[in-house]
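hi!! sorry for the late reply, been swamped w classes. u asked for the two structures so here they r. pasted raw, havent cleaned anything up. first the sequence of the first protein and right below it the tokens
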Amino acid sequence: MTDNADLLERLAARAAIHDLVMAYCRGVDRADPALLASIFWEDGVMDAGMGRTGAADFAETITAYCRSAMEHCFHAVANEWVEVKGDRAVGEHYVIAQVRAGGQDVLTGGRYLDRYERRGGVWKIAERTFVADWTMAQPAGAPLDAMYEAGRNRGGWGAADAVHAHWASL
């Protein structure tokens, strides 16, 4: 392979992996178990700090928890470090998550430590471990200010969120 071809392959792998990380955040934040499960291999494993579980089971459990226990959930990924070697890759992604649940606003910072595999030309997560680095909690703040409250363009779980109609318009 030429140097340019190798570079293009690594860049394409990194872009695919970045999309997986973004899809994970969207899957949790919109409580979309199908999206969340789709970014892991069928034999994928998730360890969110309560033990290792199959990724499909995790997708169902975490999205059900979001719907039942949280008013909202928001993830943002910051620093990303990805190393690709052939059909395998590892990544470390810094994440900040904010949730409102049980009358509390909770802000958590941590990292996703991922192992990826390319099978049949497709990249997916083979294993993810969430490492919690810090957390802060306080009594829930005020609702959205009047400028935003009047429009009622509020986030929601699953198909109730405006993003589904937005993507369907394409």
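now the second protein. again sequence first, tokens right under
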Amino acid sequence: MQDYIKRLLIAGLMALCVSLLFLGGKHSQAEMLDIPELTSDWIWPAEGVVSDVYGTRHGHHKGIDIASEFRTPIHTVADGVVTKSYYSGTYGHVVFIKHENNLETVYAHLNKRKVIEGQTVKQGDVIGEMGNTGDSSGVHLHFEIHKEKWTYDKENAVNPVIALGDAAIGQPVTALEKQEAYSLETIAKLRMADDIQIGSPEKQEKRESQETVKAPSSEVVESLKHVVRKGESLWSIAIKYQTSVDSLAQKNNIKDFRIAAGDILLINATEQDRYIVSAGDSLHSIAAKTKTSVEELKALNHLTTDVIQPQQILITR
């Protein structure tokens, strides 16, 4: 009789544990399902190319990386209050922002912070500049989202694509916008097409032009005119003409880095001091191509190691 009671108790305890696990899983899943609604108006924090995603490095990478030019503006994804703004040995210059929906965002490896703790910020405000500080292998923004608050072990981390939209490594993203998801094939065509015009994935896949983008020859004219098309950004136009976002903004007197379809931009055709890193490139091979040295490249681009990433833009002189 005692054995029978023991078996019943053991079975009951096992059933209780399974139920708790099930309820816990359902609760976590429900929280994840709420996040897209809570962040439906959020925007991408920086212009650039996705260089790493959530969950890589054996699951230790708890954010998404966006690579771009040194000092690219970093924007807050939504209204909030700055909870931390300091220098960390791992994050470098980093800013933490708490939002009204009880989510906290992290912006790391900045070159410069432009906000202080306790400051109220509005969506799209520039809170810093992209850099390569802390434990970083190249100029990029490391962006994280946490439920309630950031913790040392990052137990509250949420995959940023749940809030911002799907993104793959190598995919270009536009600051101040909600990103549309594209297939890897479409991304490849966006990189190769001479006439960049982002439409729906279905329309883009039907485009026949796949000529490699080339920088305009400096022998043709001293200045070119470019008519902005729907979906283009200063970043994509800078890549097309082998120039920089800062140069385009300065040349066209653009203060907030925003452009619209139909705008006409002046572009310096003689500007040839930028190099876009391709797969297989190294600092040594780039130094040979651009007739400079590895030391000069590292100094010009504020690199602390020889590690570079595809689609990263390097200043060469």
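hope this helps!! also noticed smth abt the second:
The chain has a mean pLDDT of 75.
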